[in-house]
Amino acid sequence: MLDRFLFQKIDNSPLVVFRIFLGTLIALEGFGAIATGWVRRTLVEPDFTFHFIGFDWLQPLPGYGMYLYFAIMGILGICIALGYRYRFSMICFALMWWAVYLMQKTSYNNHYYLLALIASIMCFLPAHRAYSLDARRRPELRSDAMFAYVKWVVILQLFIVYTYAAIAKLYGDWLNFTFLEILMESKSAYPLVGGLFEIGWFQKFIGISGFLFDLLVIPALLWKPTRNFAFGCSMFFHLFNSMVFQIGIFPYMALAFTVFFYETETVKRIFLKRKKLFKAAAGRPPQYKKPLLIIAGVYFLVQLLLPLRHHLIEGDVLWTEEGHRLSWRMMLRNRSGKVVFKVVHKTGQKIEYINLRNYLTKKQRQKIAAFPDFIWQFAQHLKEKYAQQGFEIEVYADSRVSINGRPPSPLIDTKIDLASVAWYPLQHHQWILPAPWESEESQD
After folding, report:
1. SS (H, E, C) the chain
2. How far does Cα 361 stand from its chain's mean position?
3. pLDDT tens-place string over residues 77-90
4. Residue 241 above 90 pLDDT?
5. Nearest residue to 382 (alpha-carbon basis) of 364, 396, 370
């Protein structure tokens, strides 16, 4: 039964169409990041980049290097859409995008992570066997069929993303609409529709519908009677997000995924009218069946467990941020704060207070004030900077953070020398103080 489910031969129109959409969106992302100034603000202007901890060897290229880097990714997107040297282009883009993703987190976005995962998956899928320059150049590549597992790999990845996004919303500030009120009121200046975002019932509608959409959209797209309705909801949901939150290519990539949910005949009729239709037929499992199942099993096991790791770490992830990233915890909180760094020279006990404007951009200063790992990384950066000048120092931070409009509370233990402590990705760091609501509960 598993062979029939995964290794049946079906028409490959959805994969081909998705390749064209994905390549086009990659090109827009690459060139758009340059045109909008994202590359300049995020990777060119900063003297110090907050990379994922452990990936300090990934650094932006000097000078105009990152502009060229993103231009190359844009060109690779065009090659992917055209199906030109598809494998090479897809692998190069996946590696380059992972590098960008890991070398900076000031502009962290779950959607960037999803693009990295999908790009990696697409490296192994035969998306260039029809409507591609590769197939024209090498006719022996041409095929109108693919194994059914291709579409199920994509669908399972999406199911994990949306389901965890829904589960993450089951916490107090979403359920009582506190966060939605803050989120919507920040958009009240929008022309024509801005006033709507301040209305309580509309904020509640967005909160409830957002949760239900994440929870039900994948099952609804899979079931034929609800498929068109689910697609209509997807159109509204993602275009609304694109207009209001301006989150780049993700809304359009999310809509592009829907080709995997419709019948292959429908996708071919709409997008590839001249393509020959392959009628579904039983297929013989490929020779790589066993390694495929093992690799896919391990991959999806990691995808299922990674978002749960914060439950094994002491403290509330909403406060500590430990285990937040790579977990599909999307649009759940508003963090703001202030931080003061004190440098103490071990020789002479000289004390300095750091002016962050001398080290960080405006966006970096906003991030560092509210995120523990940013604070720790900057302390390490100061340690290195002073060591280059021949000084040994201790670094202390006094940070006060407000989450979802709560009164600011101390985040970091001011008695701990952050320059001397290590970072452990799967452990709680005791120098992160308990959440204020945890202290209140213990007193009760």
Report:
1. CHHHHHCCEEECHHHHHHHHHHHHHHHHHHHHHHHCCHHHHHHHCCCCCCCCCCCCCCCCCCCCHHHHHHHHHHHHHHHHHHCCCHHHHHHHHHHHHHHHHHHCCCCCCHHHHHHHHHHHHHCCCCCCCCCCHHHHHCHHHCCCEEECHHHHHHHHHHHHHHHHHHHHCCCHHHHCCHHHHHHHHCCCCCCCCHHHHHCHHHHHHHHHHHHHHHHHHHHHHHCHHHHHHHHHHHHHHHHHHHHHHCCCCHHHHHHHHHHHCCCHHHHHHHHCCCCCCCCCECCCCCCCHHHHHHHHHHHHHHHHHHHHHHHHCCCCHHHHCCCCCCCCCCCCCCEEEEEEEEEEECCCCCEEECCHHHCCCHHHHHHHCCCHHHHHHHHHHHHHHHHHCCCCEEEEEEEEEEECCCCCEECECCCCCCCCCCCCCCCCCCCECCCHHHHHHHHC
2. 22
3. 999 999 999 999 99
4. no
5. 396
127 or 184: which leads in pLDDT = 127
pLDDT of residue 440: 59
HEC string of 395-407 equals EEEEEEEEECCCC
Given a cut of 70, is residue 275 above it in pLDDT? yes
Structure tokens at 425: 């990705």
C-beta neighbour count of 93 within 10 angstroms: 28
